[in-house]
């Protein structure tokens, strides 16, 4: 994922501000380079590959057990070395694991960005994780009582399609506008409503993920 420019940040922030003027809801957009480092899974795969080394060598060769052990260590060491590549770790991780990790981090961000503390419980998170090719909308209880979770499906499909075409900013602007329209139908703006949460794009680094 290429870094967002200052102009891209400004366009997305402006889209959030305009959308929130039509509703009492709060919209937060979070983009993560990755939702997990998948280090444990990659090391586990390296360990399993090393454990499999003796199976054929012991039965089909006359190598001394010491040589087999050394080769086993070498395979594990090579696996750990290859696992230093984030692209490799993400590539070998099962799709179900990646979706689970991305959803978990989306929930974590919903809480971390204080979306659960808004008046009327009308906070909405648009979460995108680049490495997992994952996008999700999480809405607070106040919204779920009036808006079915299925309503967000088209928003997500359009957003992921535009990101895939390389028009990510347009995708976010459209998603934010759609989100504002959905919220405005059920949660009109209050006369003295305040902007409770920041309107800027939040970009998360994956450096410290496990």
Describe this structure in words.
- The structure is a single chain.
- It is elongated, with a radius of gyration of 23 Å.
- By secondary structure, it is of the alpha/beta class.
- The protein is 55% helix and 11% strand.
- The mean pLDDT is 90.
- The radius of gyration computed from the alpha-carbon positions, rounded to a whole number of angstroms, is 23 Å
Q: Uncertain segments of ≥5 residues (pLDDT<50)? A: none
Shape: elongated
Mean pLDDT: 90
Q: Work out the strand percent.
A: 5-15%
CATH class of the largest domain: Alpha Beta
> What does the oligomeric state look like here?
single chain
Strand order of the largest sheet: 3-2-1-4
> Total number of β-strand segments?
4
Give the N-terminus to C-terminus distance in angstroms.
19 Å
Task: Give a summary of the structure in a few sentences.
The protein is an alpha/beta fold.
Comma- or semicolon-separated keywords:
Diaminopimelate Epimerase, Chain A, domain 1; 11% strand; alpha/beta; 210 residues; four-stranded mixed beta sheet; 8 helices
Topology record:
Layout: H1 6-20, E1 26-32, H2 39-60, H3 65-82, H4 86-92, H5 95-112, E2 123-129, E3 134-139, H6 141-144, H7 153-164, H8 168-186, E4 202-204
Parallel strand pairs: 1-2, 1-4
Antiparallel strand pairs: 2-3
